[in-house]
């Protein structure tokens, strides 16, 4: 068991779920069998292994990093971030009646264990279910304010009986008052599923601003910087840029896309933007080094500064910082984790090889 990941359920609970093939734990953890070298989803229909022969991991890429192969029957890489049926049903219920207040008692009545739901939302969305509900309601209120609705109307329409309570909740969630929010640029976010785990995408009217893996340790700091330094109001939502990146990301992981055409908006320092522009020019399936980028920018001694700017890139995969390696060929630091970096490089290399073979 990976003891470093505190998001994993208790060991006994995972053993029970594995033996009973409990599909409610899809995406919450993965089982890896030491005797076969294969890892599976909790609900895999293959013969259940002995508990003493199993390791548990929170993410599919951790299984790969530990040397396990994906099961051909349950295909865990394909479902690494897909919401289990019980979560999807709940999300559908929220969409159908967004004003409903979900208490723990109501969740239990629907057959949903609140603690299990909390763990799933924390792992896949970075917040609890109830925090997500509050943010969602406030996001709807933000949309109303941007459309010219009064603050009073936005407060009561989003389910708040107290105007002062609404103002306090709004400012706590968005770090801005409702009045100032009317003139701010909303940064809408949505969750995307990928073979390497869930990602969060954020976009405003000018383009995609952030695309990161949800378990990235620095994610909360990045979002806070966007709020504090650039005045964004962050709220759940969807727009054309988010729809486009979802489609293009799916094509990328299928090996059918080598370049992204979604519009980008990348606020940052002049030097950072120069580095990010160079990252965008690294050809698909190829790699470069920090030193090479520094030389291209006319600053051969700035390798460390290039590395820092590379680390501040908010657009994983789209602005391909994973294609930057160490001068010795090593896989240097990657915010999404080195197993993911290795996966992305292997994916691109394999796609290039297939294209070359088809050309002959």
Which terms summarize this structure?
360 residues; alpha/beta; DNA Methylphosphotriester Repair Domain; Arc Repressor Mutant, subunit A; four-stranded mixed sheet; flat; disordered N terminus; methyltransferase
What this model shows, in words?
Keywords: Activator, Cytoplasm, DNA damage, DNA repair, Methyltransferase, Transcription, Transcription regulation, Transferase. It catalyses: a 6-O-methyl-2'-deoxyguanosine in DNA + L-cysteinyl-[protein] = S-methyl-L-cysteinyl-[protein] + a 2'-deoxyguanosine in DNA; a 4-O-methyl-thymidine in DNA + L-cysteinyl-[protein] = a thymidine in DNA + S-methyl-L-cysteinyl-[protein]. It holds the Pfam family HTH_18. Residues 111-184 form the HTH araC/xylS-type domain. It is built from 15 helices and ten strands. With 360 residues, the protein is of the alpha/beta class. The protein folds into three domains: 11-70, DNA Methylphosphotriester Repair Domain (3-Layer(aba) Sandwich); 84-182, Orthogonal Bundle (Arc Repressor Mutant, subunit A); 251-359, Winged helix-like DNA-binding domain superfamily/Winged helix DNA-binding domain (Arc Repressor Mutant, subunit A). The strands form three sheets. It has a four-stranded mixed β-sheet with strand order 3-1-2-4. It starts with 10 loop residues before the first helix and ends with a helix. The model is unreliable at 1-6 (pLDDT under 50).
